[in-house]
Amino acid sequence: MTAISLFRQEVVEARKDRLPGEINVALPVSWQAIGFLLAIILLTAILFFSFASYARVQTVPGVIVPDSGVAAVVPSRTGIILTMPVRSGERVTKGQVLATVRTGEDLPSGAGVAETVLAALQRQSDDLNTQAGAQGTSAKEQISQIIAKKIDLRSEIAALQQQISLQENLLASGKDDLARIEPVAKRGFIPANEVRQRQDVITQRQQQLAQLQQSLASARAQLTSADSEIAQIQAQSAVQAASIQSSLSQLDQQIANTRAARSYALRAPVSGQVSSITGHV
Fold first, then answer.
1. Closest CA to 75 of 258, 266, 261
2. Which sign does the torsion angle of CA 44, 47, 50, 55 carry?
3. 184, 205, 229, 251: least surrounded by Cβ within 10 Å?
4. Could you tell me if 200 and 174 are in contact, meaning their C-beta atoms sit under 8 angstroms apart?
5. Angle at 139 between CA 138 and CA 145, to 5 degrees
6. Given a cut of 80, is residue 221 above it in pLDDT?
7. E strands, 93-179, in order
């Protein structure tokens, strides 16, 4: 079997004109760049979907509640809201005053019971303060009088001491004079009545000296008593002042309790945002 019998003439002719080697089709540069870019985009997409996260957006009905919940603040006692320094939507911190509420009943005259009691307590406090001032002034005046008396007593004591010294000198002089004339009187050169007169003078001076010494002792006793009186007045004044101060402290506590009972403050239990306010001033 020959080649002519196996293949057609056209095939034989085509194989005669065929060049030896491989045939490669050259692609344009733009097509290569596009292919490379598509490969990068595909790789990026694969990496993104493998490792990246995304947020899912979905619309649902409901109410948004904070993670820590809603803290309801309600008054512990009924009353009238005096102040409300916060507004809905405002941020507050723990312990911040949200509202001030006045409690207590009102009298037919329109005045509050707490205000009436508070005014009465305040009057008592004022009276005690006046009493304390008067008591302190009285004690100071008494002490001033005693101090002036002490000054007079010291002057009197100084004068008595001078008089006693003078009287002692006169008495000693009289005794010396009597001692000189007694021997002469015994011999009859001086009359006996003159001796008796000098003895009477000595006796009189002794009596005067005794009176002066008694007066000096009395003045010194009064001076000591004056010091005791001052100490006693100071002690009594301190006791009275302590008693008045104790009463004032009790009244101050009653006034503070009355004011606390008259109104109280609502405070934020936690920090957060005011969601709503159901009361008004």
1. 266
2. negative
3. 184
4. no
5. 90
6. yes
7. 97-102
